[in-house]
């Protein structure tokens, strides 16, 4: 007897912010039959299921832990889903002078924003076929070096280069990879970034809502775009970092933040 594979979306960072908005859009605007919603907070994931219904399957996990990715791998082997969307959104940053950032936060930023993004993709790949779509949430922070956000921005460089290289590799198989590069979004991310570190980075030019970024990201992914940028400031940053010397763009950013 052949097993009917469910058209499934896997979304990390699904409990809040951009990831939650993407789950809402995937449920309402695409033909997915199931969304595996992954984040640490079981409570918030349950609330999401109450809002969106039985299509949501919750998968509480701390993705800084390698064992969480192994658990996901086992669940995928058992269920054999057809993954039509993979959204790697989970991420966090700590902004402030490097001497003030705890070593645990440094480790976890790299583990979550870079390690888990690649490892989750790795365990999902066998289940993504032609027409499948991978959306990796990077940031405009990947476009040029960012003092006071150095570890965070470096993890986003990893995410961006990884995504663009994977995109090229998977092209023949008909799988699209889009690097979603948001600018500032008004989410709990900013509170976590400032918590315990001090207020160095305080000017959020072009800040927008996660709803807007999510809509643009899904549209760009469906059109097979390599990058998704939303809003004037994100486009300006992208082009400035391509056309001007890197050191100048970094200096302009420091001036905009009133930092030296
Ligand atoms: N907000 C911005 O200004 C901004 C700008 C550019 C890029 N981004 C990127 O956009 C993505 C989403 O950010 P957001 O603004 O939506 O932030 P957010 O509201 O703080 O959401 C982050 C999501 O990641 C999950 N998460 C955090 N740590 C985790 C862990 N250890 N294991 C599993 N899940 C974890 C959170 O859920 P739990 O807390 O329940 O675990 C939450 O669902 C991130 O990759 C971020 O780097 C944000």
Give a verbal description of the structure:
It is a single chain. The chain has 260 residues and is of the alpha/beta class. The protein is globular and about 60 Å long. Helix 4 links the parallel strand 4 and strand 5 (133-137). It has one domain (7-256): NAD(P)-binding Rossmann-like Domain (Rossmann fold, 3-Layer(aba) Sandwich). Helix 1 crosses helix 7 (210-222) and helix 3 (66-79) packs parallel to helix 4. It has 9 helices and 7 strands, in the order βαβαβαβαβαβααβαα. It has a 7-stranded parallel beta sheet, sandwiched between helices. NADP nicotinamide-adenine-dinucleotide phosphate binds next to helix 1 and helix 6.
Concise structural overview:
The chain is α/β, with parallel strands linked by helices.
CATH level-3 fold name: Rossmann fold
Give the ordered list of helices and strands. Answer: EHEHEHEHEHEHHEHH
Beta-strand percentage range? 5-15%
Q: What is the name of the CATH architecture?
A: 3-Layer(aba) Sandwich
How many helices? The count is: 9
The count of β-strands is 7
Helix content: 40-55%
Stretches where pLDDT is under 50 for at least 5 consecutive residues are: none
End-to-end separation in angstroms reads 67 Å
Arithmetic mean of pLDDT? 96
CATH superfamily: NAD(P)-binding Rossmann-like Domain
- Ligands: NADP nicotinamide-adenine-dinucleotide phosphate
| CATH class bucket | Alpha Beta
Radius of gyration based on Cα positions: 18 Å
| Class from secondary-structure proportions | alpha/beta
Question: What's the layout of helices and strands?
Answer:
Elements: E1 7-12, H1 17-29, E2 34-39, H2 42-52, E3 56-60, H3 66-79, E4 82-88, H4 103-124, E5 133-137, H5 150-170, E6 176-180, H6 188-194, H7 210-222, E7 227-228, H8 232-243, H9 246-256
Parallel strand pairs: 1-2, 1-4, 2-3, 4-5, 5-6, 6-7
Helix pairs in contact: 1-7, 3-4, 4-5
Bound molecules: NADP nicotinamide-adenine-dinucleotide phosphate (NAP).
């Amino acid at each position: 007897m052949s097993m009917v594979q469910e058209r499934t979306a896997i979304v990390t960072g699904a409990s809040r912010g951009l990831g939650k908005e993407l789950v809402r859009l995937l449920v309402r605007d695409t033909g997915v039959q199931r969304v595996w919603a992954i984040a640490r907070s079981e409570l918030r994931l349950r609330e999401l299921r109450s809002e969106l219904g039985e299509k949501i399957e919750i998968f509480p996990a701390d993705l800084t832990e390698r064992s969480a990715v192994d658990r996901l791998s086992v669940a995928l082997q058992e269920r054999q889903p057809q993954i039509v969307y993979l959204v790697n959104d989970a991420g966090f940053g700590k902004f402030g002078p490097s001497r003030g950032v705890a070593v645990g936060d440094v480790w976890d930023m790299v583990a979550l924003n870079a390690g888990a993004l690649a490892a989750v993709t790795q365990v999902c790949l066998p289940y993504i076929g032609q027409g499948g779509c991978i959306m990796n949430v990077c940031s405009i922070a990947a476009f040029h070096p960012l003092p006071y956000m150095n570890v965070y921005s470096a993890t986003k460089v990893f995410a961006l280069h990884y995504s663009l290289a994977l995109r090229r590799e998977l092209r023949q198989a008909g799988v699209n990879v889009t690097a979603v590069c948001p600018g500032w979004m008004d989410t709990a991310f900013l509170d976590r970034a400032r918590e315990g570190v001090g207020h160095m980075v305080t000017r959020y030019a072009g800040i927008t809502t996660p709803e807007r970024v999510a809509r643009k990201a899904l549209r760009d992914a469906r059109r097979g775009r390599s990058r998704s940028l939303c809003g004037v400031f994100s486009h300006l940053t992208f082009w400035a970092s391509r056309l001007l010397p890197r050191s100048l763009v970094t200096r302009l950013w420091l001036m905009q933040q009133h930092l030296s």
